[in-house]
Amino acid sequence: MSSDAAQRLAFVQSHLQVATCANEEPKKKTPVESMTEEREKATFDVRELTYFLDGGEKFTKIREKFMMELERDPTFRMYDMYDVTKDQIRERTMEKFRTIVHYVSAEPVPIFTMRMQTISLIDPGFWTRFGVHYGLFFGALRGSATSAQFSHWVSKGALALNGMVGCFAMTELGHGSNVAGLETTATFDEASDQFIIHTPTITATKWWIGGAAHTATHTVVFAQLMVRGKRYGTKSFVVQLRDTRTYTLMPGINIGDIGKKMGRDGIDNGWIQFTNVRIPRTNMLMKHTKVSRAGEVKEPPMAQLTYGALIQGRVAMVVDSGNIAKKAVTIAGRYAAVRRQFQSSPHDVQETKLIDYAIHQYRLMPLLAQAYAFHFTGVETQKLYDNLMDKLESTQPGDASMQDTLDTLKETHATSAGLKAFCTWSTLNAIEACRQTLGGHGYSAYTGLATTYNDFAVHCTWEGDNTILTLQSGRYLVSCYREALAGKAQPEGVSYLNHLDTLLNLGCGAKTNEDILNFDIIQEAWGVVTANVVKKAGDDFEASLKAGMSPEAAYEECSQARLAAAKIHSFGYIFRRFAQAVKSAPEGLRAILTKVCFLYGLYSIEQNAGFFLQYRYFTPSQMDFVRAQVNVFCREVRQEYIPLIDAFNYSDYMINSPLGVYDGNVYEKYFDQVKRQNPVGGEHPYLPLIQSLLRRDIEDDEPLEDDEEDEE
Question: Is the pTM of this model over 0.85?
Answer without folding.
Answer: yes
